Amino acid sequence: MRKRLVAGNWKMHGSRAENARLLDELLQFDSGAWPAAAAVCPPFVYLQESARQLKDSGIALGAQDICADAGGAFTGEVSAAMLKDVGCRYAIVGHSERRALYAEDDRLVARKFMAAQSHQLVPILCVGESLAEREAGQTEAVVARQLDAVLAVIEPEALVEAVLAYEPVWAIGTGKNASPEQAQAVHAFLRGRIASHDARIAAGLQILYGGSVKASNAAELFAMPDVDGGLVGGASLKADEFAQICSAL
Ligand code: PEP
């Protein structure tokens, strides 16, 4: 049985007070009854305070991004060592907003993946196609290219301590999720691609679905055999909704 995870990507939302309140509310749901691991990824500036609040809880902490470089003259960046230092367990790499708005290419994403693992952070590697790419029948080619860029620089064994997230760009923040069948098809494709390198590692890899996951659609998405949880944006900003999504797993 594969491990399962629901991770909340809070993006650039909230304030110090709102962030603390949301964590407080989440902690009330954290009864240990959730069948899956849960993680939240607040903005960088709130990570340290969040770590204190989440201490000894079942909710792990993640970062929304990471610098590919180890340290030094990289103004504005945050290194893997720093994220580890403040208590992160996960780091999202290659989110479509980073790829689209900050011109992060496959090569940089692969370097970020390695930077995370160099400090025992678990990378959550996001892949996904745009609407135009889906309509042009390029979904598999796009996610394969994004995945292969990472596989080119790591040993398959590195995937044991990693999480993959399929996030179709057209489903992120739009309220229009991929259907369970669409998600399953891409997840199975990704798992198959990894299986061509190492079947054992592919079988154990957690592949999350992200893109307008809500309490109302989580159960049917998570029921798919290759969907091992969710990467949740908007719905992770409401504690009760996020808790329901975790319970759906
Ligand atoms: C995301 O930001 O990764 C995401 C999936 O957002 P949303 O759930 O809001 O679509």
Features:
11 helices; about 40% helix; eight-stranded parallel barrel; TIM Barrel; single chain; alpha/beta
What features would you describe in this structure?
The protein has 249 residues and is α/β, with parallel strands linked by helices. The chain has a single domain, classed as Aldolase class I (TIM Barrel, Alpha-Beta Barrel), CATH 3.20.20. The protein contains eleven helices and eight strands. It has an eight-stranded parallel barrel with strand order 1-2-3-4-5-6-7-8, surrounded by six helices. α5 (106-118) crosses α7. It is globular. Residues 9, 167, 172-173, 210-213, 231-235 line the site of phosphoenolpyruvate. Phosphoenolpyruvate binds next to β8.
Number of domains: 1
Query: What is the correct CATH architecture?
Result: Alpha-Beta Barrel
In N-to-C order, the SSE pattern is: EHEHEHEHHEHHEHHEHEH
Radius of gyration: 17 Å
User: What characterizes the major β-sheet?
Assistant: 8 strands, parallel, barrel
Briefly, what is this?
By secondary structure, the protein is an alpha/beta fold. The protein has eleven helices and eight strands.
